[in-house]
Predict the structure.
Amino acid sequence: MAELRVINSGKKSSALQDAAALTTQLVAGLEKIGLAMKSRTWRREGRAGLGPLQRQVLTLLRSKPGQCAQVSTVANELSVRLPTASEVIATLERKQLLRRRRDMSDGRVVMAQLTAKGNRSCAPSSRMPDRLATAAEALSAPEQVVLLTSLVKVIRSLQEQGEISVARMCVSCRYFRPNQHDNADRPHHCDYINAPFGDRSLRLDCHEYEPASTVQVNEAWANFTGSRTA
Ligand code: SF4
């Protein structure tokens, strides 16, 4: 009996070691992808004379309606302090990549708006997305869905840890109704388009996104993760 307990405890500790090793490998893999993207981005930015934060500001403005946002919104969404955002925006204005102006409805609010030159300077590189798309296409359809749902979980965890400020994902959107339909392919519902959809259509950056309340996010998350084992 004692021998059996020793064997069982040995199996458990081996399983724990396996899980820890797998986590280490996953982190190493994510870091490698991050490094590949960063080195390419930095090389491209270096040629354009843009620093990483400068490029993030331009890319953020490019995604906004009218390519315009409040300076405080830029600071919030990029998780930087307001003086840092203001300084980067002033630098980009000197480079004529954006212009600052007062909000028409509230003169105390400063807006930053991309110029045509700024828009051109942060156009997505054609090469890296192509290469990433090639890598993603090498996965089977089920593998792609598993990767997408796993990314949703990783991004949500990074948000909870304060590393990502804003992610316009379905799982935190007020229009998201997870597992509403008795349909394995399309169990979720988007109230915005009033249509069912499946895991393969989950959005990580949706233009129609509107943030849900904390209560709604927690309920949706429990419902979204409660029915899956992966
Ligand atoms: S509006 Fe966009 S983010 Fe929100 S649930 Fe629909 S598809 Fe998802």
Notes: The mean pLDDT is 83. The first strand starts at residue 68 and ends at 70. The first helix runs from residue 2 to 48.
